Known about the structure:
10-stranded mixed β-sheet
Amino acid sequence: MSKASIIGAYNTEFGAFVTKDKATGLMTDTKTYYDMIIEAGQGAIKDSGLDAKDIDAVFVGSCSPGSFNNQEHVAPLAVEIDPALRFKPMSRAECACASSTVALYNAVYGIESGRYKNILVIGVEKMNLLPTPQMTAVLAGSSHWPSEGSKGWSFPMLFAAYAKGYQAQYNIPNEEFEKMLYTVGALCYKNGAENPLAHQKKGPASLAEIMALNELDAKGRCKNVMVAAPLRLHDCSLVSDGAAALVVTATANVGSRKARASEIAGIGHSCERLAENVRPNMYELMAGKDAAAKAYAEAGIKASDVNLAEVHDCFTINQILSTEALGFSADGRAGHDYLAGRFTRDDDKVSVNLSGGLKSKGHPVGATGASMHALIHKQLIGEAIGVKAKKADIGVAFNVGGSSVTNCVTVLRKL
């Protein structure tokens, strides 16, 4: 079975691409869903050195375009990238925040089957046309609706359940646990400040800066409000618009492009039960650990072989849980390791979220997985966007969908 490799990648800038009339509340789109698909697709094809006519199929990942933008049947929009894509097969994958990683995996299967030679993968989401309450309600549709979404549970609440379970399991005092969460957030802000594509390029980049935001000002206001205890505003990722794209081919077809290619050496795709109230061990990502084990086994590596990772920090607690699921920290120790200064750009073993992660780079849900892969690929070929990894031979992307229900771990290796 031939492995697949990435030979082209592109990431749009992430942000809130709307203007709002304060008097009427009317939102105006300044970079549309359609614009972002075209930008990302054209950018990835150009980066690959191929022509659009060389693309055999297009797989798109997008979470909720019908609710966010009143547009379903989105895959054929990729025809507008280039006239040469007309009549090519195109389809969409939906797995909440893991949609574009699942689209990538579908492309890998298409390459491995031998049916396709070159495939374009696009991840895209436009979230900011909706007011926050409506956007939150749309996202709640990716929870278990009967027991969660319909009961008013939001995703901060769902991940707060993991935070409470983790803190209780490992008997971590409140003040120490807060410092763990804030240290993770500050690390992502610090890295994101150097990412020209990041949604939030300036944030509180130290533990002390975030803790200071908890204090009430003269009017009794807090800049780091509690969202779902113990998670505060700066524990939560951003609501973003953006797109990313990849061109994938068989490793055997890379040829002269070897210097600018990275191999998809192993993948693990594991799903947890959708409803949290029927899951055991709400203090670890059990399916995430399973996905990591599968990806590592297929790639023939151990956790200690990994140089850099992009992990799904939709909330700071999930970065801690992801760090343990990938085997970079022992169970119950990741928070302590972050407090001790681990996983920075200077770490001798593995650096985490050099892009700034979802916390700073942004989290346009359908684009997040493709973005993770694009940025690791760029690190591996020596074209880092933002902070450059100390060493970049093997990278891992850990993308989740929903409340860590769809778990996707990819090992990317420098060719």
